[in-house]
Predict the 3D structure of the following.
Amino acid sequence: MTHPLVNQLRFTRSEWQRALAGLSADDARKRFEPMNCISWMVGHLAWQENRYWLYFAKGQNLIPQLEPLVGYGRPASTPPLDEMWAAWELVTGAADEVLDEISEDMLPSFYKVDGKPVFEPIGTLFHRVIYHYWFHTGEALAIRQMLGHTDLPEFVGSFPEWANF
């Protein structure tokens, strides 16, 4: 059975995609400083999922070029949207295999890198990723409004069947 935090992350990803539907490649690269552009955000979230679910969990760095381009604390960049979506899709697809194996008893444990535990337990990593998506979803929608886009999502979309009580 899929852990509820995994379901939450997958729903959050779907809302991220919904918020960016119809975004042009040109608009995705526009910056309103000090914010990063939306294409950067797509790559940045791919970088985080790659780091947590592939590198920390399995020792795999599926797309090492994300770190210098869109990693935390790196200089601003305006990468092409199609490349960032391709990276995001590759990473999230591979991460889903790891996420499908998550169980309740794993949440308080730590992934280890080079024999040392990473900075937070697995359960907290889930919260970081989910909240990170919501942070950038709001930021991206604000940028889209500044670009004059209309008919944008105004609230969280319809919940999937698993979320209904």
Summary: DSSP finds six helices and two strands in the chain. The chain has one domain: 4-154. The chain has a mean pLDDT of 94. The CA atoms of residues 25 and 82 lie 7 Å apart.
